[in-house]
């Protein structure tokens, strides 16, 4: 059962003593070193990375950016666009919280869950194509249902960027951290991350509780990721990053912002 947003607001402000990072002989590989009694989830992740030749998709310096935020905010509500070799790690870093993964590739979804059946994940579909990125950017500016203060997600058929058909728990939960490392965005027919970036911005603005939403976007060396990040996640909210990862800290909408823009 998902934690309520009210519970999240209290729990995510508590400081914990989370795992620290220890680098192994492999330049991109690390395992969590526990500083307090471990849960089954933490033990499983430790065993997985200690024995697997497969390393996480992000570099150690990129992972540290998100890890440092999780160290302050965990246990909390953590939404991850993408499912992969690093998923047990993210789930373990948020031990005691809610970590939910969204993955578009059905075969990859099944493959990962066979190896890590305890992960909480949904197979989802995206209505966009990377080749439509420029058109989507132009069309959203002409559709009032895409633009603050009317921007919303669930059942929003008028806005082509809104992820309107995600599982219900995605909309019910108030997400404290959002990681965007999917869907695929490196060939024309791929879904691209336009909808994920837009939807993360809407979720952050709709936050009801106190504080900010930390949003992490990977692969910002690519044109579309960079362009949509500047449009929806906003340069003024960019607080850090490393390598190909940017970290945004987005406040909830106050009602005083300029209508018609996210930034």
TrEMBL record:
It is found in: Golgi apparatus membrane. One of its GO terms (biological process) is xylan biosynthetic process. The keyword Transmembrane helix applies. Keywords: Membrane, Transmembrane, Transmembrane helix. Coiled coil: none annotated. It holds the Pfam family IRX15_IRX15L_GXM. This is Polysaccharide biosynthesis domain-containing protein.
